[in-house]
Amino acid sequence: MTNTNSVSDEEHPTAHRSGTQSIERVVSMLRVVASRGRSGMRLGEVTAASGLPVSTGFRMLQRLEIEGLVERHPVTRKYFLGPLLYELGLLARPRVQLAERCEQALAALAEYTKDTVYLSERRGLEAVCSARALGDYPIKVLTLDVGIRRPLGVGAGGLAILCALPKAEADEIIEANAQRYGKLSAMDPNRVRAAVSEGREQGFAFLDSPVIPGVAAVGVAFPTGHPIAALSVAAVSARLDPARRTAVAAELQRQARQLTQALAGGGA
């Protein structure tokens, strides 16, 4: 007699796909909540960004809250990443973080430019801000909190990584992120492709007002030949005119070369 309870997922591909899709939805929702950083997101904002019906999104967020993966502020009703993610992150922390290796470079760039400097690390189709340093210029451009992730191509750091990747791989990433660009920025796939082409030609990435009007940024990826991260400098647009952005890019390139040599010598 056959035991129907022991049928595997391979024998029921529809059930297997349903389970996989549920995981994809959960991960996508966590990424959406993380995209707003410490500002939090209301239910309507989460469901709009994730493309889920409000009822489905609400049920998922309720379950995630019970599990500690998100938490909801009792007054504002905004959702934030939950404590369980922090606890798991402590266990997943690599022995040597790239951010620690880049502290000196970030500080030197902040001193040189007087503006805000970011370190962005590639995570699949996205770039995650893993560190930042503030310069002394009175107007601070704080476009990213540490931990914020964005599709590659939205910010100068992620764009710089795309510029340094083989064209075929970059095109695949842009296509995969196509539906996300407009939800998070003024970018679209065509604008990203044009910015990548320009960045390859000039040797650095540059974006003006992709997310916040009046804010521009310059970025350079590293290590050479295998970009895993990027350094970028963000400032009010008027401070990154053609002459100054070239000078800032040259310093970014110098620091990126030094980091490439250091990583090659001691590992990351």
CATH architecture of the largest domain: 2-Layer Sandwich
Based on CA inertia axes, which overall geometry fits?
A: globular
Order of strands, widest sheet: 5-4-3-8-7-6
Note the main sheet: 6 strands, antiparallel
Structural class: alpha+beta
Report strand %: 15-25%
Rg of Cα set? 20 Å
Low-confidence stretches: 1-13
Could you give the distance between the termini?
A: 56 Å
Per CATH, what is the topology of the largest domain?
Beta-Lactamase
Number of helices: 11
Task: Write up what this structure looks like.
Helix 6 packs antiparallel against helix 11. The chain is of the alpha+beta class and 268 residues long.
Provide tags for this entry.
Arc Repressor Mutant, subunit A, Beta-Lactamase, alpha+beta, two-stranded antiparallel sheet, 268 residues, 6-stranded antiparallel β-sheet, 2 domains, 11 helices
Topology at a glance:
Blueprint: H1 13-35, H2 43-50, H3 54-67, E1 70-72, E2 79-81, H4 83-92, H5 98-101, H6 103-113, E3 116-123, E4 126-133, E5 149-151, H7 156-164, H8 167-176, H9 178-184, H10 189-202, E6 205-208, E7 215-222, E8 229-236, H11 242-266
Antiparallel strand pairs: 1-2, 3-4, 3-8, 4-5, 6-7, 7-8
Helix pairs in contact: 1-2, 2-3, 6-11, 7-10
Structure, briefly:
This protein is an alpha+beta fold and 268 residues long. It is built from eleven helices and eight strands.
